[in-house]
Amino acid sequence: MLRIKAMFVLGLLCLSSDAGAQSLASRVRDLAEPLVKTERVMGMSIGVISGGQRLTVHVGTVAKGSPRASDETVYEIGSISKVFTGLMLADAVATDRMRLDQPAGDFLPEGVEMPRWKNTAITLRHLATHRSGLPRLPDNMRDVASDNPYARYTSTQAFEFLKSHSLRRAPGAEGVYSNFAVALLGDLICRDAERSYDEQLRERITGPLKMDATSVELSDSMRSTMATPHDAGLNATSTWEFADLPGAGGIRSNIDDMLTFAQTNLDPPEGDVGDAIELAWRQHQATTGSASAMGLGWHVAGDGQTRWHNGGTGGFRSMLMINRDQKIAVVILCNTSCDAVDALATRIMVELANANDASSASETPVEVDVALEKMKRLEGRYQLAPTFIFDVRVRDGKLMVGITNQPTHQVYAKSETEWFYKVVPASLAFKMGADGKCMSLELLQNGIRQTARRVE
After folding, report:
1. Which pTM was predicted?
2. If one looks up domain 372-454 in CATH, what number appears?
3. Fewer CB near the terminus (10 Å): N or C of the chain?
4. Where on the phi/psi map is residue 195: left (φ > 0), alpha (ψ -120 to 50), or beta?
5. How many CA atoms lie less than 13 Å away from 70 in the CB half-sphere?
6. What DSSP string describes 356-415?
7. How do residues 172-204 score in pLDDT, each as one tens digit?
8. May I ask the CATH architecture of the domain 12-356?
9. Which residues contact residue 23 at a Cβ distance below 8 angstroms, ignoring those fewer than 6 apart?
């Protein structure tokens, strides 16, 4: 359960658009196999939904000298578990058992109090959106550096931590990614329902969706198909077990079930599960500082459309990305602790979007002339993320746009504030303030919009 980057950025401007030239499965395999050949991962299962297609690709092996994975191979999904915990909260809210702005302390056992900041209480929404003010991990968690760090940390210890902890910031004021907060949220939901986490998960989510290979505890059939976990050096390592707080990272699943989950989020069904999915999908927290906007459990990408979460345990890595506008989704489950999985999922997602947008990309806009002084108003640096900055300058009467670690290209005017690239199918729209100064620019590519704010 590694800490994620605060803002997710699709690297749209530096990727090819040749996905349509090959079959989707072979293209995914071409992108994934280099990670196996360069010994960065032992094996992976990749699921893709696009254009009505649902397919899986498996590369590498489940262990040294073992066969390739199958659709039934089970992996730890790590922090993607937080999406399921967020969905469990959404279900409790949609069925009137909880309220998002209800103090989380209402659900603690007698004698345990949630820390407060002056008169501000931590709410269930704060726990689900990483705005609680609680730390990433509690300071009474003794096995953090072990191969199995959560196995002996219990809810009793968590409550002892709450009794002694003082908040350093007001709930809601700042985003700090917290495994502890979401693990606590899962416990509170299940205490209220008088169910174990697995029982609540099965009754409210995985049972109705027929996801029989998704749970914390392994069934006999899941155990028989469990992949061997590997550390970054491809050495076999321990699975991660959870005493009684699995809500932040304890779920195991296979690629078939996770694709079912992705498809259900693309097109929610009628009924309680669909209502919960819709509620969890909504943005419940805007971006604050470097912390991303959030649904309930979901991170909201800079385009405002893509929902995503990654996960990492000692020997597994995972990524889930879904975009309803494009009707595409990518799931990667990997039996190696390797953060390159995130970049691979991003690459596949962008190529799917490129393929969807290929028809409109062939239409070239009509160029117009823009006076030099009006071009000058657009000059500046615009930040999409700390490592993704547009540098806009006028050179020799041309508007040139550079991007961090990428070449500088000329853009061409459709109007005084709308400009387009010729080297890639992308455009920029500059947003002007009341004082005539440009405040931000919006990148549009592959149907995805992302806003970069002016920083200088």
Report:
1. 0.80
2. 2.40.128.50
3. C
4. beta
5. 7
6. HTHHHHT-PPPP----HHHHHTT-EEEEEETTEEEEEEEETTEEEEEETTEEEEEEEESS
7. 989 999 999 999 999 999 999 999 999 999 999
8. 3-Layer(aba) Sandwich (3.40)
9. none
